[in-house]
Amino acid sequence: xxxxxxxxxxxxxxxxxxxxxxxxxxxxxxxxxxxxxxxxxxxxxxxxxxxxxxxxxxxxxxxxxxxxxxxxxxxxxxxxxxxxxxxxxxxxxxxxxxxxxxxxxxxxxxxxxxxxxxxxxxxxxxxx
Length: 128
Ligand SMILES: [Zn+2]
What we know:
Layout: E1 4-5, E2 12-13, H1 31-39, H2 49-67, H3 76-91, H4 94-126
Antiparallel strand pairs: 1-2
This protein binds zinc ion (ZN).
C-alpha cells in the first residue's frame, strides 16, 4: 500500500515531500505543491494511525486514478490545517523554542525567588 503518491503522475513514494522517481517532480520547489503532496500522503493524518492505514488504501486508489488522468481533489479545510501545521513547524527554531520555555517557566522562577527572599528575610528577622 502507498505511504505517499506523486501529485502529478500518481507514482508511489515513501514520503510526501520526496522527489518523484518516476516524473522528477520535487514537491519542495513550491509551497502549494508541498502542501498538496503532504495531503496525498499518510502525513495528512499524523495523529491517527488507524486513519493512516485506511488512507493508505485510498492513496492506492488515487494513485490509479491519477495515472488514468484524473486530477485529485483537495478538501480546503484539510489543506488549510496542513498549511497551519507547516507554518508552526517552520516557526519553531531552537532559539524560539528556548524563548518559549523561558517565558513559560519564568513565573515559577520568580515565585521561587520571592519565596527565597521571604525566607531569607524571616531568618534575618528571627536572628538565626
Ligand atoms: Zn511523479
